[in-house]
Amino acid sequence: MVSRQDLKHGQVAAVAAFDHLAFNHSRLAHSTMDDMSLQREVLGLFLDQLAKTRAAFKEKPLTPQERKFLGHNLRGSAAAVGAEQIEELARSWEKVGFDAGVLDALFEQAEKAFRAEIRAFLP
């Protein structure tokens, strides 16, 4: 678990993201017009994107422009599916960047919470 003490100045918003819901059901319902099969498909696509994004920043150091591009894309996708913690993490990453290890730990925490709420929401 990453704490506020693990972060550098300007990155505290990332841990504050965990004060938000992991999964906002109404955002997903709105984005998918309450279609449960579409919700499952969209969530699967989002989780694939999250995995690819995590792999990209672990693969090699990113330029500030690459980081902003990936963070911005992930933030938008997270907003559309209601992944509020991941959305806030992506916003912080996009703006200030992170050490890859800290970032991966933060995304892992947020992804676990998001997946747990999805399992409870979508049987």
Regarding CATH, which class?
Answer: Mainly Alpha
Secondary structure tally, helices? 6
What structural class do you assign from the helix and strand content?
A: mainly alpha
pLDDT < 50 stretches: none
The protein's oligomeric status is: single chain
Can you say what the CATH homologous superfamily is? HPT domain
The radius of gyration computed from the alpha-carbon positions, rounded to a whole number of angstroms, is 14 Å
Write down how many β-strands occur, each being a DSSP E stretch of 2 or more residues: 0
What does this protein structure show overall?
The chain is globular, with a radius of gyration of 14 Å. The model has no long low-confidence stretch (mean pLDDT 85). The protein has 123 residues and is an all-alpha fold. The two termini are 28 Å apart. The chain has helices at residues 12-16, 25-32, 36-59, 64-81, 84-96, 100-121. It has six helices and no strands. It has one domain (4-121): Up-down Bundle (Four Helix Bundle (Hemerythrin (Met), subunit A)).
Describe this structure in a few short sentences:
The protein has helices at residues 12-16, 25-32, 36-59, 64-81, 84-96, 100-121. By secondary structure, it is mainly alpha-helical.
